[in-house]
Task: structure prediction
Amino acid sequence: MTKANADEIFNKRLERHHDELKWLYMELYDNDSMFAELCTNMYLFYRDRRNPLKARDKIRENDPCWFRKNDMLGMMLYIDNFAGNLKGVEQKLSYFKDCNVNYIHLMPFLDSPKEHSDGGYAVANFRKVRPDLGTMKDLARLADVCHEKGLNLCMDFVMNHTSEEHEWAVRAREGDGEYMSRYFFYDNYDIPAQFEKTVPQVFPTTAPGNFTYLPEIGHYVMTSFYPYQWDLNYKNPRVFNEMMYNFLFFANQGMDVIRIDAVPYIWKELGTSCRNLKQVHTIVRMMRMIGEIICPSVLLLGEVVMEPEKVVPYFGTVEKPECHMLYNVTTMATTWNSVATRDIRLLKRQMDIVNNLPGEYTFLNYLRCHDDIGWGLDYPFLTQWEMREVPHKRFLNDYFTGKIPGSVSRGELYNDDPVTQDARFCGTTASMCGIESAEYEKDQVKWEAAIGLDIMLHAYMLSQSGIPMLYSGDEIGQLNDYSYREEPEKAADSRYIHRGKFRWDLAEQRKDKKSLQGRIFDALTRLEQIRKQEPVFDASARVCTYDVHNNSILCITREAAGDKFFGIYNFADQPETAWMQEDGPYTDLLTGMDITLHDLTVPGHGFYWVKKQ
Ligand code: GLC
Result:
């Protein structure tokens, strides 16, 4: 591409967004010079973008729904747990093919102090990979190799805060006002005290309070998360500009998806909850436009762990989009509620809410991620069955920690707050489904039931509306790893229970169809292949729930390309009947046999994937 051609593309894209971008920038910062600087740097990042990435941009600009195809399947993993370092990941790429995965989320890998890292979410240097994981060159190379193999790469962009060891924080701690103004510094507790009146706590027991006192300079600094994670002050245009340069830097390393960490928190205002303020949306919208100008192949995935009304606005509007994808967090938590209660009514309602949103909105579906599960359910709806928030949360936590008779789940609580009586839960999918307890008790019947539940939940997740994301290790039924308790820097954070090392020795067993690993891996592979082959799994499909008049059976229908699919999932332990009368003929997609949808009996924790012929 000649320079003139390239400039023309850049100018055309800039022209499309310039007025809105400038308008929003001025609204927040009223600073022409900083806007001019932003534009100059945008051009420089565009100029430096490698040609293969520019080619990717062009293809995806012409196919903006590229990521909504039925072959999209994600997997999230920690580089060190999975393969030691970035080069190790490169050597293991064939494993993703085995798993039908074409989208890899590399958990935080930037330089971060070992003792104070929050799993890598306390970034000390945005331009440096954690030395034991490799170098920026290794990352860019991995991206190139992934692209050659049809794989997409995702990384976290921790925008809300830096580590206290980041250069800005170090200089701020030295009392340099230029850098102090990039954070929230106060020389007495008056304003922090006012903030504390309205701002909830993220880590009430592991890191109480939203401010940290720095005795060496006699100042308080805002720390919404851990005391070593200092909140950035986006009222300062220098912060916004520099963070956009970091974003573009990662895009130019070849990232396909940028996960914007903790995005609701990035704007603070006294007298508010400091969550989801309108300026956050201005910033995300600007980021989307900046991405579309320099690297339109790159997707924004917003991490908004909030109730649905708060999540959806992060898609923006159809004319003025913000994030391309958001986590389907309430559905995830509600799924586990159905596992514990064997009752799908709340889940059905939650899915109806999601399914009624505009088709352009794409959710990322998952059963587990690296974080705890918070029980953010629709409690006003649950009250009709006498289920109240505090006791119900207690029930769920007791259930999943295995304290309730009959509960087979194993795991640990997280941030068990005696004040709000709130606690969240940690554990792997397999342990939550009962595989750990069954193996411990050497109980074959329970083991079979637990495997059945695990597979059923994956089948259900793969048929939800949106893009599925597996948590590395779940494909071989990995159990809780209690070894974190022995590591001082991890011991206080029970999320590490489900962040164990990937067990390659166990993964080898996936070829043995009778082993736990083989059973789960094989079932998932079959489901993933069907999903890839059947156009009815395209993200553009019309997805609905279907009432089968049984509170334990969830039925999902998908319609696309003239096909109709039924996913029928029994959350109860015993066989249940899906009371339905649908005239066929139908095919059971798993066996290829004919099946009739007349009052279908579904085995305990069983499921059917059925397609109209
Ligand atoms: C996000 C991450 C979580 C981290 C927090 C602070 O919520 O998922 O792991 O602790 O941000 O960065």
